Amino acid sequence: MLRDITLGQYYPSQSVIHRLDPRVKLTATLLFIVSMFLFHTFVGYIIAGICLATVIIISKVPFKFMMKGLKTIWFLLIFTMFFNIFLTSGTPVFQWRFITVTKEGLTTAAFMGLRLFFLIIGSSLMTLTTTPNQLTSGMETGLRWMKKIHVPVHEISMMMSIALRFIPILMEETDRIMKAQQARGADFEEGKFMDRIKALVPVFVPLFVSAFRRANELAMAMEARCYHGDEGRTSMKPLRYARRDGIAYLLLLLYIVVIVATDRVVLGLL
Questions:
Q1: CA dihedral 76, 77, 82, 85 (to 10 degrees)
Q2: CB hemisphere CA count around 149 (13 angstroms)
Q3: Among 134, 189, 208, 258, which is least packed, fewest CB within 10 Å?
Q4: What is the rounded CA–CA span in Å between residue 47 and residue 140?
């Protein structure tokens, strides 16, 4: 299960999406997330789904590999849809004792489920096609204007880069500790819910110790290399926009215009 977490992992390939400037991919991901709240009909989700599927095909990242990341959030999806189905008032379509399922509840649950699915796949696509170093450079360069209002852009970018880099490492460490505990007779799959939670305590303690040890080693390594933030730092590979980046921005703008205009037309017809 832990190996199925794809957030923070990088999938190497020679696709056009991989070669895009990280600032383009960060902007595209942000606008894609915002676009999820700009439409209110299934037509908008169909257009978003087609565009997302097209980008996935172009990126050459196996869809099966991306779907692995959803295994860890199925509970969140089901939990969110469950509450929307049974706690949204409206026109009843099913009623039994105190349980009432409404038409509005089913619609809201479907919208929320699709929205979460697209958000997770879209965010995973960015990390799968962009290395942590590229993400750091993209964020630092794209948000450079915020330094004028004394926002520590470099420090924030560095922290996010380190966090993304350490997610797969911590997942592997957790998997290794769990296998070691299972070899000593621990059982994480049987028993009551609280018993399984208690069985994870011997996993969390060495995991936290390992995480703090890695953090201390990283801090010492940065100090030994005289790291002082972005003061006087230069980039070995400065970011420069290419023609493909301009085309990507135009396609992104076209996507936003089409999805908003189509949603307004459909709402007008309804």
A1: 140
A2: 3
A3: 189
A4: 32
pLDDT in tens, 91-123: 777 777 777 778 777 888 888 888 888 888 888
User: Whose CA is closest to 21, among 124, 114, 134, 184?
Assistant: 134
Torsion 253-255-258-261 (CA) sign:
negative
Rounded distance between C-alpha atoms, residue 50 and residue 48, angstroms: 6
Q: Please, which residues bridge with residue 95 across strands?
A: 100
Better-predicted residue by pLDDT, 190 or 257: 257
Q: Is 196 helix (H, G, I), strand (E, B) or coil?
A: helix
> Which residues are 230's β-sheet partners?
228
Where residue 60 falls (left for φ over 0; alpha for ψ -120 to 50; beta otherwise) is: left
Beta-carbon count within 10 A of 243 CB: 7
State both tokens at 140.
Answer: 């630092």
Query: d(Cα 178, Cα 173) in Å, to the nearest integer?
Result: 9
- Give the SS3 label for residue 168: helix
